[in-house]
Design goal:
Helix 2 runs antiparallel to helix 3 and helix 3 packs antiparallel against helix 4. The protein has a three-stranded antiparallel β-sheet with strand order 2-1-3. The protein has one domain. It contains four helices and three strands. By secondary structure, the protein is mainly alpha-helical. The structure holds zinc ion.
Length: 151
């Protein structure tokens, strides 16, 4: 064999390896941020926690939704700070609460934005960011209820 033969055969060999990779199936990851189950088997539900198993392209699609959500939340927070920041009532306590909500919205929105960018980039979830996002959303919900009660 000379160099010419090798250059002809090597692309075929690469093609063979890619085909073998495809036969093994696509990697599926559990959607649950607290669960790290991963498999090559084509199953719908995680055997450990029962959540959906997702392919990389599905994580990417959800990533775009997270990015959209993050842009909307952070954008709303930024717009409120920008447009209402200097038009708040003279009551310092209420102004403080209002500004806390505006900044809260802005920073809470950064979490799905970051998680979404990671998902689109990597095709898998970022467990820590997802967990922080869930905690932040829960905190927002609790804050909303408390504000309804006290204001
Ligand atoms: Zn699971």
């Amino acid at each position: 064999m000379n160099d010419n033969d090798l250059s002809v055969f090597s692309p075929n060999q690469n093609g063979g390896e890619e085909a073998a990779e495809a036969d093994r199936g696509e990697i599926l990851r559990c959607h649950n941020y607290a669960c790290s189950f991963v498999t090559y088997n084509d199953i719908d539900k995680c055997p450990y926690c029962g959540r959906r198993m997702l392919r990389a392209d599905q994580f990417r699609t959800l990533g775009y939704i997270l990015i959209g959500l993050g842009v909307v939340l952070s954008g709303m927070g930024a717009a409120l700070i920008y447009f209402l920041g200097d038009k708040l009532p003279n009551d310092p306590a209420r102004s403080l609460v209002a500004m806390a909500i505006f900044y809260g919205l802005f920073f809470v929105g950064l979490l799905p934005l970051a998680a979404g960018i990671y998902q689109v980039y990597s095709g898998q979830k970022h467990s820590k960011l997802q967990k922080m996002m869930m905690l932040a959303f829960s905190a927002v919900l609790v804050a909303a209820v408390l504000i309804r009660i006290f204001f």
